[in-house]
Every structure is written in C-alpha cells, then in structure tokens.
Design brief:
The protein is of the alpha/beta class. Helix content is about 20%, strand content about 25%. It has helices at about 40-50, 65-70, 105-110, 110-115, 135-145, 200-210, 220-230, 250-260, and strands at about 5-10, 35, 40, 55-60, 85-90, 120-125, 130, 150-155, 165-170, 175-180, 190-200, 235-240, 245, 285-290, 295, 300, 305, 310, 315, 320, 325, 330, 335, 340-345, 345-350, 355, 360, 370, 380-384.
C-alpha cells in the first residue's frame, strides 16, 4: 500500500568485518555484541527511533542469520509498524537476474523499488557498524536549511589519524569542495562518519548512471560523492559533536567497550532522554556472592559472580567461579570462568569455558580474542 514518507533510512549492515578477526567468523559485524547488553546495530537503530524516523530498510548480506534473528520484526526499537517500520533487505534474484551487493551504492540501487513505494523526499544512508548517539532529525533540518542536495555528517579526528578516513575539505559556509578517500597527506581533519542525507530524486539518478558503469566500484565514497562534486552539486558537511567510534578492529572494539567505564563517559548509556534499545532477554537478576568483588564494571542479567571483576564488561549468563580475577576484559554471553583463573585485557567469545588455573594476559597493544576453538595451551598463559 502506498504511504508517503518524508525520509526513509537505509541501514547498510552487510559488512563482513574481516579486521575484527574471529569476532565475525560466523556473524555479520553489525551483530557483534557490545557494551554488556547490546549489539552494534542497536545504536543506529535506536538513533532512528529517537529521531522519529519510523521507516528503516536494513540491508544485510554476509552471515545474516544471527542478525535477522536479532532484528525480528523491529519491535525492540518500536519499528514493528504496519506502514513503514523495519524491513530486512538481503540481496535477491529476480527474473532479470541479480547478484550480491557489489558496493554500498549498488546495495541502495538494488532496493530502489523498496524506497519508491514510500515516495520519500530524502533518503538517510547509515552504516550498521559504528557506535554513537545522533539526532538524525537535526541533520535533516540542517540539510533543508542549506537547500542541499546531499549532506554528509563529519567529525573532527586527530590529525595523525585523518589518513584512515574519507576526508572532507569544506568552504567557509560548510559546503564541500573536495572529498579525499584516505589521503596520505590530508588537508583537513573532517572525517566522514558514513551518515548521508540525499534528496531522493537526485540520488536515484546517480545510482542509475553508476549501475551502468563497468569499472565503477559502486561505492558512495569512491564513486557517487565524487561524481556529484564533479557536477558541482550542492553538498554540505554537517558537523557532529559527540562520541563516535568506528569499531573496525579488535583493538578499537575493545577500546570502545572500555570507554563506557570511564568515570564520566562521553557515550552515556544511562540516558533516559536518548535510550539505546535492544532485544530483551528476560534473564534473572545477576548474583554476587559473599566472595565476589566488583568494581567499575557493567554486569548484565543472569550472571553469577564468585570472583573479582575490575573494569570489565560481562554480558548475560556469565559465571565467574571462586578466586578468579577478571580485569580490563569483555566476556560475552554464556562464558564460564573456572576457579583460580586470571584474565587481563582479553575478549572472551560467547559460550567459551576457561578451565581452572588458566592465566591469560594480552601482550603489548594487541588484544587477545578467546573462543571455544582457541588452543589455550599455545597462548601466553600458565596453567596451574
């Protein structure tokens, strides 16, 4: 049924996340656990709900089974709507043929029919693998005020890290004069956050042209945005002030989790005005025995703690047995820690059992990820 929407959000959630190593062996990057209760994709979805955007297409591809099960019908984010709501959009094959999504722009192109049924004025393009809280409606208002054809959200990054990002060079009025994809010598430290607003009629025309280009990578940063700049379209940068983290590596993922444990975290989860929603697991309260010690940590439901937890994050149904010490670590659901265990600066994947007497500490700057398949005897530890 035809329903007019001012803005439709398209959330790109098909990322393989190779740099996250074993964390994404069997699940898509947006489905990776985060923050003791959530998955990464909960953050952009909650941003949509809190911003009043009630029509979201989630474009999935790589290892999407867990992600689809988590999303369900969108009820966890108040997106179980009869007119709009959340729709999962994996690649599909029609009579005329079809293929895997060849790039971010191609993913949107293959779903033009989904967008067209809402006849939107604007399309909001989001990434499903960043941690941040953002009012998209404020960005839409800025887009309208500038009479822009495309608006790209940017954030200032340290100059020594700017070469890792797509960098926007802007004029004094905020209009974008140049876009550089990971420049070795950047002229600006305004990094693209992967959040775009386009006038739908304009974007559609560029997607249709790009789809016919044989040598295109069909990517927003590499193809669509440079093409629009070359045609002198009206592109503006929207400056974002707040916490934003690309959790694309094991170390950055660990750091983002640890950021939540700061005395005054920039990303505040205890914020009733901008809650982060997720699937409710309905577990019993966590239990702390008389032998337990917990400091500066996030402990989710269903945990049983008989040991010592310092500056760590524990997901649901984690058990830590007596005389075990967990520090600066992330323990995913259903992890069991035996007796006399010591873990420091590690990530333990879902369902892993750490036997009695195991001692593991990450060496140097690299954070160890431990799973059920990890041969513990080959790691940096002593087993008593």
């Amino acid at each position: 049924m035809y329903v007019k929407k001012e803005c439709v959000a398209m959330l790109l959630a098909g990322g393989e996340g190779k740099r996250l190593g074993s964390l994404t062996t069997k699940i898509a990057k947006p489905a990776v656990y985060f923050g003791g209760k959530y998955r990464i994709i909960d953050f952009p979805l909650s941003n949509c709900t809190n911003s009043g955007i009630d029509t979201v297409g989630v474009l999935t591809q790589y290892e999407h089974l867990v992600l689809h099960r988590h999303l369900g019908n969108g009820a966890s984010w108040d997106l179980d709507r009869g007119k709009g709501g959340l729709t999962c959009l994996p690649p599909f094959v029609e009579k005329k043929g079809g293929s895997w999504y060849r790039g971010t722009a191609d993913a949107i192109y293959q779903n033009i029919c989904y967008i067209e049924q809402f006849n939107p004025d604007y399309v909001l393009i989001l990434s499903g693998d960043h941690i941040y809280k953002m009012n998209y409606q404020a960005m839409i208002d800025y887009h309208k005020k500038q009479n822009a054809e495309a608006t790209i959200s940017v954030i200032e990054v340290p100059w020594n890290e700017a070469s890792r990002f797509g960098i926007m060079n802007t004029n004094i009025d905020g209009s974008i004069s140049e876009f550089e994809e990971k420049p070795p010598y950047p002229n600006s430290n305004l990094a693209s956050m992967g959040v775009y607003i386009f006038n739908w009629s304009v974007l559609k025309s560029y997607l249709e042209v790009d789809a016919l280009l044989e040598h295109s990578s069909h990517d927003f940063g590499k193809d669509i945005i440079p093409a629009m700049l070359a045609d002198q379209r009206k592109l503006f940068a929207y400056s974002f002030k707040g916490y934003w983290k690309d959790v694309g590596t094991v170390n950055s993922y660990w750091e983002a989790n640890m950021d939540l444990l700061d005395e005054a975290p920039t990303l505040q989860l205890h914020d009733g005005d901008w809650p982060i929603y997720s699937k409710n697991l309905n577990q019993p309260p966590h239990y702390l025995s008389q032998d337990a010690f917990v400091s500066n940590s996030l402990i989710h439901e269903g945990c049983i703690i008989n040991g010592s937890i310092t500056r760590s994050i524990l997901f649901n149904n984690v058990e830590v047995q007596r005389n075990s010490f967990i520090e600066d670590s992330v323990l995913m659901p259903d992890v069991i820690i035996g007796k006399n265990v010591s873990l420091n600066k590690v990530i333990v994947k879902e369902g892993t059992f750490i036997p009695d007497g195991t001692k593991i500490t990450s060496q140097g700057d690299d954070i160890l990820v431990i799973s059920k398949e990890t041969p513990l005897q080959e790691m940096f530890y002593s087993h008593g």
